[in-house]
Design goal:
Layout lengths: L7 H13 L7 H4 L14 H4 L3 H16 L2 E7 L2 E4 L4 H7 L8 H15 L1 E8 L5 E7 L4 E6 L2 E6 L3 E3 L4 E5 L6 H4 L1 H19 L6 E5 L5 H15 L11 E5 L9 H16 L14 H31 L8 E5 L9 H13 L5 H7 L23 H14 L1
Helix pairs in contact: 4-6, 4-10, 8-10
């Protein structure tokens, strides 16, 4: 039997299945940019989801925190490690990734793209030696990943084909947009937000109706309604026209659980992005102690995984293979304490007492000039090694005897 010829519909479906990478008919419309309404009746896309305040706050919090951390290139030589500020990648990731962006804006942009669209992309421009000389961010929707003869190729709008080694990719979990994945959840939040806007835009819900025993003309109804609405804006006793009755039918937003719905959905969005509610100004039982714990949880469980993603991708794409692993990149997570002087002071105190840092190294972290004798590493005497304890005890006894 001769095989059936593919119809136009089959070819279109095959194309979109290729784009989505799986045979899921429900993803065909999304691949074409066609989104159905959520179960709550709202149309949620990556663009309009940012109009939900909690989504914007979570994306802003993570992206700006990542961008505010220092990202340095380090070189390890034996047991010594120092900042490789002469490496070609140093200025790219720390100062000037391209001619039109600062490093802060670049990392904020590419991280926000990964948080919203699931992927953050930047085309790597290289010199004749193969070293990266510029990073150009591109919108996630302008990038199409294809396979040509078993190799990945990125087709970038208005740019052309880009090989994998020349594309910096910051990927979210499973390279998937959390907004697409949680459309119904976000749709409920958007519907509650739209309801509130409509409610207050119409000066609240209808509070009641006036009924008359006698038939009225349109002019009479308009006159009475206008007079009643004008009087309703003022407190005091209202005089009912003869033959009219007033019946209250209003229901408060509290009774409709409007406020509770918005609060719960805001917490759901925080759960999606793994951001503690207190860090995006959500009300609740927030105290100084649990806010401190939430900051610690945010740094450990949200920021650190993102820094690992970025460090590994930068090392893979911007550091030549023959220089790895001696040369590598690393975020300065200690910068997370810059806004907390007490935590920063405690950190440096512990580093000084353990002999990890010298006084001048601490002063350099605080951008202060060195002091004479400040390069000596100190440690507490009760932390001397066990094989020196007898010698130390004898020296102390001799000193006491001489006194």
């Amino acid at each position: 039997m001769r095989p059936r010829m593919a119809t136009l519909k089959d070819r279109i479906q095959s194309f979109f299945r290729y784009r989505t990478g799986k045979y899921d008919t429900s993803s065909i419309a999304e691949a074409a940019g066609i989104y159905s309404l959520t179960k709550a009746g709202s149309n949620i896309t990556e663009s309009n989801a940012m109009a939900i305040s909690t989504v914007y706050a979570c994306v802003y919090k993570i992206a700006t925190t990542i961008a505010s951390l220092g990202l340095d290139v380090y070189e390890r030589s034996g047991n010594e490690v120092h900042v490789a500020n002469v490496h070609p990648a140093h200025d790219l990731i720390k100062i000037k990734p391209n001619a039109y962006q600062t490093a802060f804006e670049f990392w904020e942009t590419i991280t926000a793209s990964a948080l919203i669209y699931g992927m953050g992309y930047a085309v790597i421009e290289r010199d004749e030696r193969g070293f990266a000389i510029a990073l150009h961010p591109v919108h996630a929707s302008d990038v199409d990943l294809r396979e040509v003869k078993g190799e990945r190729v990125y087709i970038v709008k208005d740019f052309g084909a880009v090989r994998p080694e020349n594309m910096l990719e910051i990927a979210n979990l499973q390279r998937t947009s959390p907004i697409r994945l949680h459309r119904d959840n976000l749709g409920l939040a958007k519907s509650a937000q739209d309801f509130g806007a409509e409610y207050f835009g119409q000066s609240g819900q209808m509070t009641g109706v006036l009924t008359s025993d006698q038939p009225l003309k349109k002019e009479q109804m308009d006159l009475i309604q206008g007079s009643w609405n004008h009087g309703a804006a003022q407190a005091g006793t209202k005089l009912m026209p003869f033959g009219f009755k007033y019946q209250r039918i209003s229901i408060s937003p509290d009774e409709a659980q409007f406020i509770e719905t918005r609060a719960f959905q805001a917490q759901e969005i925080c759960r999606i992005y793994n951001v503690p509610p207190a860090l995006v100004m959500l009300p609740g039982q927030t105290t100084y102690s649990n806010t401190e714990q939430q900051n610690l949880m945010f740094a450990r469980h949200t920021i650190v995984p993102w820094t690992q993603r970025i460090e590994q991708e930068v090392d893979r794409k911007l550091i030549p293979a023959f220089q790895r692993p001696e040369i590598y990149t690393k975020f300065r997570l200690v910068d997370l304490q810059r806004g907390d002087s007490t935590a920063r002071a405690n950190y440096f105190t512990q580093m000084l007492q353990a002999g990890v840092l010298s006084i001048n190294e601490v002063r350099a972290e605080e951008e202060l000039n060195p002091v004479p004798g400040g390069d000596v590493h100190l440690c507490q005497v009760n932390q001397i090694s066990l094989d020196k304890i007898d010698e130390y005890s004898a020296a102390i006894s001799k000193t006491t005897t001489n006194e």
